[in-house]
Amino acid sequence: MAGNTFGNNFKLMTFGESHGEAIGGVIDGCPSGIALDFDAIQKELDRRKPGQSAIVTQRKESDTVHFLSGIFEGKTTGTPIGFIIPNENQKSDDYSHIKDTYRPSHADYVYEQKYGIRDYRGGGRSSARETASRVVAGAIAKQIAPEIKIHAFVSSVGDISIDKTYQDLDFSLIESNPVRCPDLAVAEKMENYIKQIRKDGDTVGGVITCVIQNVPVGLGEPVFDRLHADLGKAMLSINAVKGFEYGSGFSGAKMKGSEHNDLFNADGTTRTNFSGGIQGGISNGMDIYFRVAFKPVATIMQKQEVLDDKGNLTEQQGKGRHDPCVVPRAVPIVEAMAMLVIVDNLL
Amino acid sequence: MAGNTFGNNFKLMTFGESHGEAIGGVIDGCPSGIALDFDAIQKELDRRKPGQSAIVTQRKESDTVHFLSGIFEGKTTGTPIGFIIPNENQKSDDYSHIKDTYRPSHADYVYEQKYGIRDYRGGGRSSARETASRVVAGAIAKQIAPEIKIHAFVSSVGDISIDKTYQDLDFSLIESNPVRCPDLAVAEKMENYIKQIRKDGDTVGGVITCVIQNVPVGLGEPVFDRLHADLGKAMLSINAVKGFEYGSGFSGAKMKGSEHNDLFNADGTTRTNFSGGIQGGISNGMDIYFRVAFKPVATIMQKQEVLDDKGNLTEQQGKGRHDPCVVPRAVPIVEAMAMLVIVDNLL
Amino acid sequence: MAGNTFGNNFKLMTFGESHGEAIGGVIDGCPSGIALDFDAIQKELDRRKPGQSAIVTQRKESDTVHFLSGIFEGKTTGTPIGFIIPNENQKSDDYSHIKDTYRPSHADYVYEQKYGIRDYRGGGRSSARETASRVVAGAIAKQIAPEIKIHAFVSSVGDISIDKTYQDLDFSLIESNPVRCPDLAVAEKMENYIKQIRKDGDTVGGVITCVIQNVPVGLGEPVFDRLHADLGKAMLSINAVKGFEYGSGFSGAKMKGSEHNDLFNADGTTRTNFSGGIQGGISNGMDIYFRVAFKPVATIMQKQEVLDDKGNLTEQQGKGRHDPCVVPRAVPIVEAMAMLVIVDNLL
Amino acid sequence: MAGNTFGNNFKLMTFGESHGEAIGGVIDGCPSGIALDFDAIQKELDRRKPGQSAIVTQRKESDTVHFLSGIFEGKTTGTPIGFIIPNENQKSDDYSHIKDTYRPSHADYVYEQKYGIRDYRGGGRSSARETASRVVAGAIAKQIAPEIKIHAFVSSVGDISIDKTYQDLDFSLIESNPVRCPDLAVAEKMENYIKQIRKDGDTVGGVITCVIQNVPVGLGEPVFDRLHADLGKAMLSINAVKGFEYGSGFSGAKMKGSEHNDLFNADGTTRTNFSGGIQGGISNGMDIYFRVAFKPVATIMQKQEVLDDKGNLTEQQGKGRHDPCVVPRAVPIVEAMAMLVIVDNLL
Known about the structure:
4 copies of one chain form a homotetramer.
Chain A: E1 5-6, E2 11-15, E3 22-28, H1 38-48, E4 66-67, E5 71-72, E6 75-76, E7 81-86, E8 101-102, H2 108-115, H3 131-144, E9 149-157, E10 160-161, H4 184-199, E11 206-213, H5 227-236, E12 241-246, H6 249-252, H7 257-260, E13 278-279, E14 282-283, E15 288-294, E16 303-308, E17 313-317, H8 327-346
Antiparallel strand pairs in A: 1-2, 2-3, 3-7, 4-7, 5-6, 8-16, 9-10, 9-11, 11-15, 12-15, 13-14, 16-17
Helix pairs in contact in A: 1-3, 1-8, 3-8, 5-8
């Protein structure tokens, strides 16, 4: 079970290293007859791509998806959708300095230990570049279930957080700023903070909140494949994610049952929604919402000790063009993975 | 994909409702030739069983496991291990009052909507009783990999928390108190608090921390089946769980890269362990540790509004014998599910 | 992937050895709300059970299935259906003579080599007794899709064969004779031949033909999971099966395209049906039919050389009560496995 | 479960239509550190490609595989191997005449019924062109397990058959003739017959025999995933296959146990091998051999009645360049699928 496949009914297998010729994927199980909006797919990729604003990595890649199969005269045919995203900007020389060294809190060391070989040009397979393929599949999933409304946004960067509930936010403002934070005053603080972090040659973590609306009652399988367990696994499979909570989450652990129980309305909806739209692992028709914690990017532009393959510790200066904060570009990835789970359960 | 199977190489399928004749499971993929310690298996079940102390549900069930196959002359044979745990204390009359009503924050409503039928005697399949089968499988997993050391414990109940790191705790004290908290001063506070909650007819949530030591380098598959994603899904599949974080977790989202990066020692170990023993989804040989948030039990001994199947809201008094706080009994479940993941990846 | 699970949407996991306490299984994915006819299930088991006629093994076992879960007030609930079939007639002493020896063309030797341990009482897990659990699941599958008409029958025993096409047979005669052959003249010859084989202490192989009618157009997935590939795997997973062919089968390999092509009628049906109801791996609505070859039972009541675990060859006389010809009792197993495939694809 | 993935540990997902831009696949689970022989891979593709001799289709395609990932400095890295094979010779106009018609014994009708849409240019996804991707994966599998010796060859074309056992054949002669039949006298007859069939505008079926040597004892999982069941499914997933038998196969159904039992030698090998190298679903170290029946290609160069999408039957003349007999080109496909099964079980 080599780990590069996601989903059962709507299945995605991805391939590709950050500095190979191309990355890509195959989607198996897409329903037939869907007229794809290719601009919408590319737009999702553009939300994830490098170089899109002053607060993300300045690498230049157009991240253009190229479909090879499964589509005929603009419509899906029900056969596997194969696609590639060429790697335009390989610049391997950026990485020659890390050929024999393991950077702290990267996957270099464990890949070398596990496989005995490693594509040392960039992160190889462990690079977040792989997530571009997920965004393609997620964009198609959105078109399969257009009735589902999904909005992810940045709710924290370092210590700076939105202090409103999601109901008090205007989701149409998410894309209005480079941080993808719908509270504009907070967004500005976050943006300035990220710029300062970049100047310091440092990085910082953050939190993304995701809200999924209009999910029908009944999605999710009891016991092991609860809907929130699938969502949690999907989020934890994204690079740099350290935690997942849904509904009341960790703060629910502090509450009493008499406070936490979501009393019914007569139509089966609930007055509160500490459950986060999922009860017993099955969607109850209320909004599904969850929070995803991202650690700071491990590549920093400061001197750090690294380990080499002979067991020596030496100082090394970070090079290249990296994100000072990963969450603005991770927003479309969170949405994509959530949609893969929802559509896999819908089909 | 009906959701009652967990794992790929070491696979568990469970069955059974809380008030049927028996629950049970089948383990497929257990290596052959393992001389099972049946007392150790039963001891794990005893840690989960009702009635074990004054702060848990007072239902009486011996939770005795009975093996039907896969074992010959005390050793595993490599064939499937089928087992049952009879339901001794069905007392269905306790539940007649909920036949036509949906209790808030239970699975009653969504099961009825999804399946059109529901075993209304207790939680049916959504009852935490199902987790006894997981504890059996987890106890066998422990015996497959005795070199792995795993300790879960209660780190929070409501607002009461241990404020030490796990390195400062003595794991041998976990079983010394009914809360399963190794900080004895905190344990006493928790115990008193749970007793008060019970008197109030209320319930309260909590957090379990789990530490896994001696895991070899290299467990976990890149991309979708990262070790922490599998652990997260395993934990989120346990009843009442609302959140999962590993290593630095949500607090890591507030940190800078220069603080968070785990610098190497010359032997490949790291000086700090914000990574939580997993980098790039693959174990790096350091301690794996994570936290799991549990919401308060939904059944409370107070009057609450319930919805009936005709759309009427009526008041109902909770009945029966339920846990005021689920975390003390959930400790062996967390360990069991973690071991299922570890052994599934080891094999 | 330990091999004891069948199906994806309608999933069966079986467990149990021939001489353990019980065999059984768990069905995951059965739709909810089906009012089960328990007599019909037991009747299918009775078609497979030992001792049913003079030409099968004279072991006495009632093969009574006992359901543990997934059924409430006579209806399926959508949760896993766990069941056991107790082993009544264990008579382990029958098998003490084979504790240290490997019988020719049995699984003794390969199990010992693969697992290093073996339940030597009877065939253990490799005994055809395991197929009783499949018959239970298949009987439930028949009730899920009552519109599907399925008839398996014995078409050959040794050199004696039906020489009519299935269209010329009266399926209602299948159960009228102990061989389960609907051509009564041929059935009588087969019965006499099997009796002679039994007197000789020998065994003989045979062929079962299966016809499935009323299958909707569109079942089966392209490429790897073609409907006939799934049927073939299902049949080849039955003990003693050596071959599978559908539609024109091996004789189709001798034909020309101009003879073999099934010309259409205007309604999409075809005038001939060499395709066997499946084109490109997908059902086309015509009758699905296939043939399954069974080798002779390996246990014979004659002296044979066996190998012991020290590498010695010694003569041994077969003991116990075995089938002289396996096909009469295999008819319900073929139907059961076919229905598992059909229902798995229907759901 | 959309059916375009094969294998569990060594997993292949394929994509692509015959007249799209490219076909291809992704291999997940290939061990790391294998120095690939790319010429050997291409050579396998050349054995399958069109235009290789006078008795196969005269379409011209170079079938050149292009690897996109999973390989670094000539060695596998353990990450997914993505590859494409561009479609050079699309000539879609060849197919405009079948846009609205369903050809007899093709997949046109069932695809249209199942998906409501169909890539009518050639066979689309149901074209045997898809098998080129399997040949790539099988060629890599051969390099993972170079100790396994596998030889497939044509043993029958129409009524012309080899009448020797495989032990009496010289496998080195298989590639010496365009039919891939190691009995040269029979090969010549077959070749002439195929040429005559081509002149007649007709097609003919055939049988491929495959022998796998040097397989270790112990491959295959009991019960549902028996080694021969996996091999059978693999073969039945190849276009045009109608039957599979291993070891004694259908002729074993005519034998007595006293003839069919494979008596042991003292070293655990057997004197005869009616078992076909597999007992109880597990390899016993003897040669594995099996036979695969292929129907005649459905596209013939004669007038035939076709059905159109309005329910009219009209005569149509077959066009294009098709194989008069599929088995010579199917030999490398049979080997590839067999190696996928063997390596999947080895890993």
